[in-house]
């Protein structure tokens, strides 16, 4: 009986400690108090749905593609008599963390409609997509596109990867993933869907991701941690030669995509998705301390040079991001254009600027 009382007392004590830590976390880390839950694909009526940063998102199969939908019937929305704007991209075009009405393609459609220009606007995207699988997808589905449709490829700076590195990374995951890491990975769905509702546990995850990386020191010693997912687009000092190879590979792929578009007489445009490292006043988002001083390549100049050299039309929203930040700062109303602690995904305001650029 005494043992049970002791256990109950200890549980109550731990609960009180947890509540105190939760309240302190909510006070000092309000950005982690909401929009932190994620859930992978699940079925609701027709199609697939998921939860991304606590936002319910819907996807429907249409013409061999999985399209981000408004939860309406795609067959009723699609007008065969109109040209289609096909948007191919990664998590940015997937609408990471955004309601459908906050996505750049929804705003694009509304802006075009206001100018009496009617199109079908369809987003074909998935997390981790890059130009390799987009080229394959477009090549396999040539019959779906109509002459004078638009083919828009959303470029992300983390698209630049040498093929050799992809093979190494794939091999490493298969062979070196230990029992403990496998156990943690199997627990991820529960963590993202339920445990992330706790601000305290989300803060712990935040700092754990910092601790396991080299966030300070010499560029070469930091290795991949110096620039993270932008290692090859910005030519991190330790990976300079591999980065040059990666850019050459990308250029060959973008020309391949352009050629596929030309065959079907599609209007081809590259949409360059900015990253917060390019902007003022966004340092707080860079909590892994990616350091552009470790770069040997100007990633933006590189992509612009490739597109200009090969006469590829593009939309570069960076100047709109810079202009907006300048005005907001001068007015004393600055807010980031990306999600909290995220260098890669524009928030609803950033997405609107992307649509204006297009």
What would you say this structure looks like, in words?
It is globular and about 80 Å long. The protein is built from 13 helices and nine strands. With about 350 residues, it is of the alpha/beta class. Residues about 170-185 have low confidence and may be disordered. A hairpin with a 4-residue loop joins strand 1 and strand 2 (about 50). The longest helix has 27 residues, at about 1-30. Helix content is about 45%, strand content about 15%. The chain has a five-stranded parallel beta sheet, sandwiched between helices. Helix 1 crosses helix 8 (about 200-210), helix 4 (about 105-115) crosses helix 13 and helix 5 (about 130-140) packs parallel to helix 10 (about 240-265). It has helices at about 1-30, 75, 90-95, 105-115, 130-140, 165-175, 180-195, 200-210, 220, 240-265, 300-310, 320-330, 350-355, and strands at about 40-45, 50, 55-60, 65-70, 85-90, 120-125, 150-155, 265-270, 315.
